[in-house]
Amino acid sequence: MRRxxxxxxxxxPLTEAAPAxxxxxxxxxxxxxNRAARRRLGRTLAIREVDAxxxxxxxxxIHALGNVLYDLERFGLRFVASPRHADVLLVTGPVTxxxxxxxxxxxxxxxDPKWVVAVGACARDGGVFAGSQAxxxxxxxxxxxxxxxxxxxxxxxLELLKxxxxxxxxxxxxxxxxxxKTRRDEP
Length: 187
Ligand code: SF4
Prior knowledge:
The protein is of the alpha/beta class. Bound molecules: iron/sulfur cluster (SF4).
């Protein structure tokens, strides 16, 4: 035991150091997202996250946006507890059979104007869970209209911010809904 303690003391932890966030890039992007939200909505952006059966990898990156390193609330971006207070639904996971109705009801409960962002490979087409009998099949767009897909497995915080900015820029340029709607079962 003493040898083990001594070895740990000498060599230190074996885990890799966390990558340092690019603070300047994050601050720049978050400010632009906030300005775009105020231009488009007249207020800050409210985001509701929906886990539709993910492995939690995407959630870890989304949660990172609110941690002490990124602290996006200082730029006005807020994660809200209810879809009734949300502008954007960030949806992760392949949409399991069990989460289908919950996702539909969450979408219905979100007031207009609203946008759906599918986060990660699974949300796009099922990803590593594609073909599973536990999943609806076809990703988020098979259940609710998707305005934007942010690729990655999982996408890091910087990519999430870029995606939100692209979404707001697209709807700012267009008076109506975002032009990236991809619901498959619509006429
Ligand atoms: S995209 Fe990757 S990290 Fe995100 S839920 Fe799917 S497997 Fe997990």
